[in-house]
Amino acid sequence: MCTTEFQGVFSELSHHFSGYLGRFAHASNRGVLPSGEPGGLRLCWPPERIAFHNRTRQSRSRKSAMATQIPWSMNSLAYEDRVVAFIDVLGFADLVKASATGAAAHGKISKLIAIYNVFDWFVPQMLDKLVDGGFFSDTFILSAGTSQSLYLIRETGNLCRYLLLQGFPCRGAIAAGPLHHRERIIIGPALVDAYRAEQSVAIYPRIVVDDATRDYWAEECAPGSAHPHLKSLVKKDCDGQHYLDIFEPQWGDFLPWTDFVPATEAVPVDPAQFLTAAFNSIREGLKASGGNEKTHAKYKWLAKKCESHATALGLKLN
Question: Could you give the CA distance from residue 101 to residue 10 in angstroms, rounded to a whole number?
């Protein structure tokens, strides 16, 4: 390239860059340049584009800060030896389907939601460091360390008694074993065992208890312990399964949840009053389940257990 041609090209490039730098200076004076951004076409963005870009950067910064606070460690799963209760509300699926068109079913679902709210407040506030809880759909879960099995059984029974009086008989199981329970994260072999027992062993509206939990309970209620009189809360049923007898008068030794949480329908502490209220709820279930043989049989089982305790107290329920 000759000298004259080179000078021409240089002059053209100088003119081009002087215009570009002029636009850059104009944008700088308007205060629309993103701080710390590298050069390039962004230097000539309109103010609206610059503002949007800055908001995006700020959002990414917040997300990055949040990510550093979330414990993503693969070592966060820590099993402990615990006792866990898996409690299922019977007839929930049919109730939900009916609630879309039926006022009565809709009202019962609303009542169950109110019970969820009581549970969600009561467990962390009143049982802190004793029993942990969680719920989803029609299932309640309670767990405790093996040394706290008394509290786990107490609160499982209190919950089932409360639910029954509200028209929600329960079926479930209590199992002991490895469990990870941190707030609403619940996982472990013990939970699987409790779920399987609820599905295949419980059968009736009762909470069955596995052998390991029964051994912990026997220690809690051994002669010379502080609670030998509570041993009858766990009984052996006619099929050989151990279960929580929620009609046992000794439940009156415990304060029900409704003594701590405002409720229009309190759970009676007096055994005769509880049996009367429970039988009224069971009788309603018997009437409503007349066309469903399977559900009706479950209510008949409950009625038989309730009547047996009423007879022992000399109480007439009919």
Answer: 83
Tokens of 140: 């309640």
User: Side chain identity at 129, as an amino acid letter?
Assistant: K
C-alpha pair distances (Å), 9 with each of 4, 18, 23, 99, 175: 9, 14, 22, 82, 86
Q: What pLDDT score does 50 carry?
A: 67
DSSP string spanning 197-231? HIIIII-SSSEEE-HHHHHHHHHHTSTTSS-GGGG
DSSP 163-208: HHHTT--EEEEEEEEEEEEETTEEESHHHHHHHHHIIIII-SSSEE
Q: Residues 253, 259: contact at Cβ < 8 Å?
A: no
* Contacts for 223-232: CB closer than 8 Å, 24+ residues apart: 227/150, 229/253, 230/150
User: By CB neighbour count within 10 A (0-12 exposed, 13-18 middle, 19+ buried), where does 74 fall?
Assistant: exposed
Task: Please tell me the pTM assigned to this model.
Answer: 0.75
Taking residue 124's Cβ as centre, other Cβ atoms within 10 Å add up to: 13
Which amino acid, residue 26?
A: H
The neighbour count for residue 237, using CB atoms within 10 Å, is 15
Which tokens hold the place of 4? 């004259």
Which DSSP category does 127 fall into?
A: S
17 has a pLDDT exceeding 90: no
Predicted local distance difference test score (pLDDT) of residue 96: 85
The conformational region for residue 178 under phi > 0 = left, psi -120 to 50 = alpha, else beta, is beta
Share the mean pLDDT of the chain: 83
Find, among 236, 184, 191, 185, the residue nearest to 209 by Cα: 236
* 153 in Cβ contact with 189 (< 8 Å): no
Percent of the chain with pLDDT over 90: 54
Q: Please name the residue that has the structure tokens 């929930």.
A: 92
Q: How far apart are CA 83 and CA 91, in angstroms?
A: 26
